[in-house]
Amino acid sequence: MNQTDRIHELYRRISQAAQDWPPTTLSHYEGQPFKALIAAMLSAQTREEQTLAAMNNLLALADTPEAMLQLSDEQILQAVSPVSFFQNKARYVREICHQLVTQYGGSVPRALDELVQFKGVGWKVAVLTLAVGYGIHDDITVDVHVARIGRRLGLVQPQTKQPEKVNEELKRILPRGYWPHWNGLMVQFGREVCKPTYPQCATCLVRDLCPRVGVVQTGPRSYKEGDYL
Ligand code: SF4
């Protein structure tokens, strides 16, 4: 099977299986740029259920930048306490809301170079915000799942770590139509099957299509992330 056919088949099987897997946290905020921005910022280095808990707390108090600015520091801190680095992120919530209200009339800008000017918003968060909030998919959102699984599947060079570079390598080989869904699919696939430390290779639905780059077999049916990287 050539590379193009392999990619189509990977996509087909994973998308089909994903219909039975729980949706990603960010998918709750599709078409809602403000919520997507705050959720994407809170999600950095945080488990999905913690991001969702913090978002639910916060949105129960306020769901617009103007209303969020009316909350006290303590209220925001308490609301986002489930996420990692919550003290910094609580500050970012206020600073982002302030910037949105004072510079953008309360709307989230649609340009990557403007979004990365916000506190707590790097390239990954900005790409995710545009994708989820506005359906803009000029780039592929790269998180730990996208990078790790890309390497294991042989779609990304083993030594490539920077999200921007992973994005470039994936964009060169994935059809444009796959870009919007790639992050969500890899998050779901990474949660259910191609897990960070112990990938479920023995029963994996794409086992016959995967070179398992960087994965070592530790028993007849057990596999583990290697330490070559
Ligand atoms: S075979 Fe293993 S490494 Fe490859 S995609 Fe499946 S779980 Fe991941």
How would you describe what is shown here?
- This protein has eleven helices and two strands, in the order αααααααααααββ.
- The protein is mostly helical and 229 residues long.
- It has two domains: 3-21 and 142-225, Helix-hairpin-Helix base-excision DNA repair enzymes (C-terminal) (Endonuclease Iii, domain 2, Orthogonal Bundle); 31-134, Orthogonal Bundle (Endonuclease III, domain 1), CATH 1.10.340.
- A hairpin with a 2-residue loop joins strand 1 and strand 2.
Percent of sequence in beta strands:
under 5%
Report the CATH superfamily of the largest domain: Hypothetical protein, domain 2
Q: How many domains?
A: 2
> What does the largest sheet look like?
2 strands, antiparallel
Structural class: mainly alpha
Mind telling me the C-alpha Rg?
19 Å
Approximate shape: elongated
- Just give the CATH class of the largest domain: Mainly Alpha
Cα separation of the termini: 28 Å
Please work out how many helical segments DSSP would assign: 11
How would you describe this structure in keywords?
Endonuclease Iii, domain 2; 11 helices; Endonuclease III, domain 1; mainly alpha; 229 residues; single chain; binds iron/sulfur cluster
